[in-house]
Amino acid sequence: MVQKNNVILTLNGINKSFGAFKALKDMRLTIMRGRVHTLLGENGAGKSTLMKILTGVYSADSGEMSLNGEKYSPSFPQDAVAAGLSIVFQELSLVNNLTVAQNIYANHEPSRFGFINDRKIEKQATTLIRSLGLPINAATKVGDLSIAQRQLVEIAKALSRNADIVILDEPTSSLSDSEAEILFSIIEKLTTDGKAIIYISHRMEEIMRLSDDITIMRDGEYIQTLAKTETTIDQLIALMVGRRMDQIYPPKLSVKFIPTNENILEVSHLSVAGKVNDVNFQVKAGEILGFFGLVGAGRSDVMKALFGMLPHSGEIKLHNKSIPIKNASIAINHGIGFVTENRKEEGLVLLASLRHNITMAALPHFTTTGGLMNMSKEKKQTDKAIEQLAIRAYSGEIAANTLSGGNQQKVVLAKWLATKPKILILDEPTRGVDVGAKFEIYSIIRELSANGTAILLVSSELPELLGLSDRIIVMAGKSIQATANTTELNPQRIMAAATRQL
Ligand SMILES: Nc1ncnc2c1ncn2[C@@H]1O[C@H](COP(=O)(O)OP(=O)(O)OP(=O)(O)O)[C@@H](O)[C@H]1O
């Protein structure tokens, strides 16, 4: 019989410091079989660190863990896997030039005499992928997949080990709604089978839908564990940020520039081979133009083309002048900034300091008349960004990879703010960012728009698009399906256009 609702894992008195910084203080957690247990906390609260201790990536400075009633102290990730724990990390860890099947079975391939049997693992992977209902081919190279598809491969990889405890760290942040539904049904099946799920997410609706239990963490400390049935989103947010939040979308600010009727950007017949088909739109100074579409609709490729990262045809006019944007430096020189959806590959130099990352796209703003770097100006900008975006870092000199995921996202935004862009492209700017920090980012978007920056906002979160945009373009199948003022749109019409049922 499947065992449910009894304790499988306990953590007690867990402490962990990085240098002088205490990331976890006397943290505790109790996980039950057959239930989804969500960890909730602001960016930098310590959720991922706790999961790394649980899965043998880090060792705790002190504290105790027990699994199935026995002392559990993994020294390496392999120990955690052997003990029945599997984790899907927030940042992807797949190898691009291997196939989906090879990635799923990396390190535990069915091999004979030491030879990896590619055909066999492809067959096994296909069976697994089908049983999970994933829209992916086992023989495809991972490098050819979208980020969403890669995330689904990560999930398949974690499940291929048949673990008793599955840890999902922000698994839906790059999934479309329909892909997230696939994941939710997988989770339901796993819990029915008596597996325990530890779930990390910043999406409150999703948390309320999926969770059985919710533990709130703040500043590395345990705050409270609540059953989903006995709490509300408002209560959870208040416990998490330590204050009440009455609104999440800041109102429009009054315009602080002289508006003209001129289009700051005009895109005509933009096409990218196999990715974008004849896209046309305009945007005025101070306007926030939202882009909605399901994964693969072509939104991010439009943005990459505009930023000179993809070869394209068609015309891009800036201030009524045709500009061939052949590479990113031409885009930057013409005042375009780009917060990419993939911060790890395109947004940050992870080993460089926050100061370097924040100033690197705007070096001319930080050089002296003699052409030398003006370090004190750089430092000032970095400190300002840390404060303005509430980046959890004790100094601008630390490496970007020591920040939590959500705080790294804020550094990418800070980097483009430093360029003082006239047009700012934001591709999923709040991915992995907690509710309090989302409000800070939305306020900055409002402020930029009030000062005349045109914003192109790509987001898979409909409430975010509806809450911020002046107009929304809906894309599907590589082209534009609908453009309308936000006041004329509702979620049903947008989804109808995105699924081409208009
Ligand atoms: N290797 C490291 N070196 C130094 N500091 C670290 C390291 N790893 C994590 N930290 C710090 O520990 C704190 C907790 O980070 P952690 O990644 O656990 O947060 P999180 O709750 O998962 O946040 P997010 O929601 O943004 O993913 C952060 O302040 C982070 O900067």
TrEMBL record:
Keywords: ATP-binding, Cell membrane, Membrane, Nucleotide-binding, Repeat, Sugar transport, Translocase, Transport. It is a peripheral membrane protein. Residues 9-244, 259-502 form the ABC transporter domain. It is found in: Cell membrane. Pfam families: ABC_tran. Transmembrane segments: none annotated. One of its GO terms (molecular function) is ATP binding. PROSITE patterns: ABC_TRANSPORTER_1, ABC_TRANSPORTER_2. Coiled coil: none annotated. GO terms for cellular component: plasma membrane. SUPFAM superfamilies: P-loop containing nucleoside triphosphate hydrolases (SSF52540). The keyword Translocase applies. This is Monosaccharide ABC transporter ATP-binding protein (CUT2 family).
